[in-house]
Amino acid sequence: MPTLSDAQRLSRAWRRKNPGRLKKPDPLLWTLNAPAVLLVLCFSVLPLAYVVYLSLLDTPPGALAADFAGPSNYRFALADPSVIRAIWNTLYFSAASVGISTPIGLAIALLLDSGIAGAGWLVFAVVLAWAVPDIVNAMMWQWIYNPTYGALDGLLFTVGLLRTYTAWLSTPVSAMNALIFAYSWKLVPFAVIILYPALRSVPHELHESAATDGAGAWARLRHVTLPLIAPSLAVAVLFGVVWSMRAFDIIYILTAGGPGESTLVLSYFVFAQAFQFGDLGAASAVACILAATTFILTSLYIRALPSEKDAA
Amino acid sequence: MNAARARRRSILAKSVALYLCFAVALFYLLAPPAWMVVSSFSPDAELYARPPHWIPDRPTLRHYATLLQLPGADAVTISRNPWLHTFARSFFNSAVIASASALLCVGFGSITAYSLSRFPRPRTRRRLLLALLASRMVPVVSVIIPIYVSIQKAGLIDTLPGLILVDSGLLIPFVIWILEGYFRSFPTELEESAALDGCSPLGIFGRIVLPLSRNGLFAAATFVFISVWSDFIVGLSLTSSPSAEPISVALAQALNPISEPSWGLLNSAGLLAALVPAILAFLLRGMVMRGMLSGAVKG
What is the domain range of residue A24? Predict the structure, then answer.
C-alpha cells in the first residue's frame, strides 16, 4: 500500500489553496516541448505510417508516383523465394546469436560477480567490446576471417585443427555461422550489462545458507541464482533477439547476403531492394513485416522489463 | 586431517577452474581487438605471412603515417587508396554530427522527459513511454525509405544538417526514455517547496532539476554521441559524397577498393574510429556497466 509522503500531502494542500495554478498549461512549457514531440512524430511515428502506406502502393521500380494496389506487394513478397529464405535466415541468425551470446554473457557476469581478482580487466574488456562500432567490428572480423592471411585460419592451422586454409565466408553454411560468431561478440556485452546488476542483487545470505546445506557451486547456480535472475534472463534474451533483427552493418561488410542468398536477412533485403534495385513496393512490404515482428517482440520485452519503474 | 586436506584441494581446484574461465573470457573479448592493434603496427611483409606473426619482429608506425599523411607515408599506398584523402574529413563529419545530435537530443529531450516524469496520470504516462520505446525498437532499416524520401524532398540529402536531424530524430525517444526514469527517481520535495515559494514549473526545471541532474544529462549525451558515431545505415542511405560522409561509411568504402585492401591501413583506420567511443565508454565505465548508456537496456 503506498503511503502518502509529507511532500505529497503538502503539495495537495497547496493545490487546494491555489486551484488551477498547476492545471493551467504553461504556454512556454508547451512551446519547449514542441521540438522533441515534433522529432518523435517526424522520425518515429510518421515514417512507420508512411512505410505502411508505401507498401500498399503499386510502385514501378524507380518511380515515386503510384496507384493504390492493396495487399498485392505482400502477396508478391511472400511468394518470393528470396523473402522466404530471408525470413528463415533472420530467425536462424537471431536465435543463434542470442543462443551464443547469452550463455557467454551470463558466464562473464558470474565471473564479475564472484569478486575474482582481476575483475577490473574483465570490466575493461566488456566496456571495450560494448564501445566498438558495428562497422569496426565487421572490419575486424573480415580481417580475422581473411582466407589467405587470416588470424583464425592461422591459429587453427598452427594448433593443428586445420589442414588447409579455409575461406569461411565463401561457403553457405560456414558463412552464416562465421557471421553469427562475429555478431555475437558485439552482443555479449549487452547480455553482461543486463545480467550483472541482476546477479549483484541476489542476496548473499541465500548463497551462504545454500552452501551450509551442502549445495555445490553448480547446484547453487541452478537452484538459487538462475531462478532469481530469470526475469533478467528473459529481458536479455528478448533484447538480444530484437537487437539482432537490426543487424545490418556486419552483413553488408562481410557477405552482402551471399554466397547466393545464404546470409540474406530481412534488414539487408529491405536495403538492397530499396536502394540497389529501386523496388520500393516490395521493400516497404518486407520492411513492414520486419517492423511488425520486432513490434510484437518488443511488447514482450517491455512486459519482461522490471516494473519497479512505475512504483510511483 | 584428511577431510581438511580434501577440502583445501577442492577449493584450489575451484579457483583454478575459475581462473581458467576468467582467462578464456578475457581472451574471447580481447583477442580480436588486440589482433587489430598488432596488425596496425605490423609491416606489410609480416602482415601477409602464413602462419601470422602474432608479435611483429619489426613494429612500424608506417600505416599510421600513411593514414594521416604524415612524413614517412607510403606514396604508392596513398595513390591506391583514394579514400585516404577524405578520411580526416569523415572523422570531422562524424564528430560534428554526433556532437550536434547529442546537444539537440539532450536539450529538447530533457524538457519533454521532465514533463512526462511529472505527468499527473501514471497509466497514460506509462503508455506514452512504452509506445515511444516500441516505435523506436523497430529496425532503422524499416523506416529508412520514408526518411530518405522526406530528406530528399527537403533538399537535405548529403548534408550535415540532414544527418543531424535524422540521427537526433531516431535517438530522441531513447533519450526521453532514459531521462524520464532519471527525473522520476528524483525526490520531489525540493520542487514542492520551490513551488510553494512561487517558482514556476519552468523555473523549477531550470534552477533546481537541471543543475542537480548533470550526471544523467551527461550520460544521455554520451549515449547519443556513441550511438551516432557508430551509425552506419543512416549515413550510408543519406550521403553520396565525402562532404557529409560519416566515418563508418568511409571505412565501408575503404573495404571495397579497386585492388586488395591494405590491411595495415584499414586496421589503423578502424582503431582510430573505435578509439573515440572506447575512451568515452572507459571514462564512464560505471555507467556503461549499469546500462545507463545503452538506451533501451535500462530496466
Answer: 6-55
